Amino acid sequence: MRSMEEVAVGRPPTGWLVGWKTLFVGCGLLLACNLFLWVWDYNYAFTAGLDSSSRAFALHYRTLFWGELLSVGAFAGLWYGWLVRTGRSLLSESVAPAEEIRRVVVLWGIIGATSLSIYIEASASALLTGSGATPARSGREPGARLNGSTNPSVLP
Fold it and tell me: For residue 60, what are the CA distances in angstroms to 55, 70, 71?
């Protein structure tokens, strides 16, 4: 394990690219993965994606689902292990204020990349399921039930 001084050689702890690099690289990777999924979906949505009981659906979509699940799980497990190992070794070291600032900036870069990931997932979900329709577009008043009643005890 390298010390903080060896890692920080040539990088000012409060330099401009410290936090932005994490944000740009993380967002770039997320957008590349999302672009791949869009291309995959456009290629196979109508040929294999409509009949979930077919072999083509299992090949193109269930395989993709399990691959995503396993890769995200492996990444999260490895990252968590790295964080625990690194954190334990840093407990005994005193940290300079500039290093604390660098760590906070990197944390905000990770928060920004996570925010982009949530935005991508939420916008894709609304577009694919049609849940983005507002009551004004559906012709109903907000809170109105399908049978026209606003009484919650009346079932549609």
Answer: 9, 16, 17
The CA distance from 53 to 56, in Å, is 9
Q: Are 13 and 101 in contact (CB under 8 A)?
A: yes
- Say if CB 117 and CB 23 are below 8 A apart: no
Place of tokens 């932005």: 20
Residue 32 is predicted with a pLDDT of 93
How much is the mean pLDDT over the chain? Answer: 76
Sorting pLDDT into bands at 50, 70 and 90, what band is 46? confident
Backbone region of residue 34 per phi and psi (left: phi > 0; alpha: psi in -120 to 50; beta: other values): alpha
Distances (CA, A) of 69 to 4, 73, 76: 34, 6, 11
Residue 54 pLDDT level (bands cut at 50, 70, 90): confident
Overall size of the chain counted in residues: 156
